[in-house]
Known about the structure:
The protein is of the alpha/beta class. The N and C termini lie far apart (38 Å). Helix content is 27%, strand content 22%. The strands form two sheets. The chain has an eight-stranded mixed beta sheet, sandwiched between helices. A three-stranded antiparallel beta sheet has the order 7-9-8.
Amino acid sequence: MSRAPELKRAALDGIELAYWDWPGAGPPLLFVHATGFHGRCWDQIVRHFPGRRAIAPDMRGHGRSPKPDPPYHWMSFGRDLARLIRALDLREAFGIGHSMGGHSLIGAAAELPPETFTSLLLVDPTVFTRERYGTPARDASFIARRRNVFESPAKMYERFAGRLPFSRWNPDVLRDYCEFGLVERGDHYVLACPPEIERSIYGHSTEADADLHPLLAFIRQPVTVIRGGILPSEEVFNLDSSPTDPALANAFAHGRDVFLEGRSHYIPMETPELVAEYVQGMSTAPLVADIN
Length: 292
């Protein structure tokens, strides 16, 4: 049975971040979404953990959180997440992040005390190879041309269900994406992550300050990195391809690499049950003793 989360807000330094809170017991599951998405994209994974507390923020510029004008720099997301975790006094949490959410989790984990997280699951995180940082980002101008106005979430679902990459998604995930990925504006709806914000996020993804590699060795918790199997192209910005440094897991003190051949970047959307299995595994596996 699905549980309905409560939409809450936390006043942080300079921003009031929205987050979805599923009531429950035990160490919390903290889910962090990708660029252009929102916290409710995790619903079909959370449902596998009845009775367990789960938290999923809408990151700045997304969902029900405020949308400051661009630019959007990547380290700001990790700082926001760290501030939210402090505000909620989370400890021994299991962190699960997809794409930008994985980047944000790494940034937060490096900033916070080691007891904050028990382990991390990074699903195709946007952490490029070191040589990519400090170079121009791939052209994301097409993002600004996204359709921004819809009659309703149902019409958005109807439009997307037969189109790639959405036609490969679990239908329930796509419904959640549409229902909570729009905000009402009078007699119509607009994207909860405006195209100009999404474009700015992609446009700043390779700036030098977004490079997390110097921080990775300081994260002592067990980290599982799941990588999609579609390799990126040097010429074309393909959102289906994996942005993850193939050697990322090796940079952590206790890293594990999982390569899913043939899978696209949208692993939680296409196979939520598979991600739920990895979440279950990380929350029941024996802990690595040295996390200090």
